[in-house]
Amino acid sequence: MNLFIGIESFMLTNEDRKQILISVLETIRDISDTEYQKRIWILGEGPEEDSFDDVVNYFFDEVDGILESHKDFSITVSQYRVLKKFRDQFEEFSDNNDFPEQFIDTPEWERIIKMAKEVLGAFNYQKESD
Asked: Which parts of the chain register pLDDT below 50?
């Protein structure tokens, strides 16, 4: 679900923007975590229900709106650049790869994981305690 459909960014509250950004960073965290990917995307062990396709669809639905309205999201220039670079590289990768069991241990995926970790670092993102 794209939260930007029918809603202009300026109509979102600061809390809305914060929650959207956190949600995208949580998705990037999942992209950065090979153990999660093997457990959930490949083995389907749960308790989470997720797939590579779900991650790709959600990420692109939301990240483009954030990048288009980055000033409204209080994103710094350096955060914008690292997020945009990751977005572009992840798009290229996801356009050419569908099945995690085929790419999970490849050098190309390792580069995506490294870039995801760089985004998390740029945003000082820490997983909240459950």
From this structure: 1-7, 129-130
Assess contact for 9 and 68: CB atoms under 8 A: yes
Q: Report the number of distinct structural domains present in the chain.
A: 1
Question: What is the chain's mean pLDDT, rounded?
Answer: 89
Write down the pTM of the prediction: 0.87
The alpha carbon torsion through 76, 80, 86, 88 (nearest 10 deg) reads 180
Residue labelled with tokens 């914008």? 80
Q: Which residue has the tokens 């949600």?
A: 23
40 part of a folded domain: yes
DSSP 5: T
Q: Which long-range contacts (CB under 8 A, 24 or more apart) does 62-66 make?
A: 62/2, 62/3, 62/4, 62/20, 62/23, 62/24, 62/27, 63/24, 63/87, 65/2, 65/3, 65/4, 65/9, 65/20, 66/20, 66/21, 66/24
Domain residue limits at 113: 14-122
Q: Which residue has the tokens 């997720």?
A: 50
128: left (phi over 0), alpha (psi -120 to 50) or beta: beta
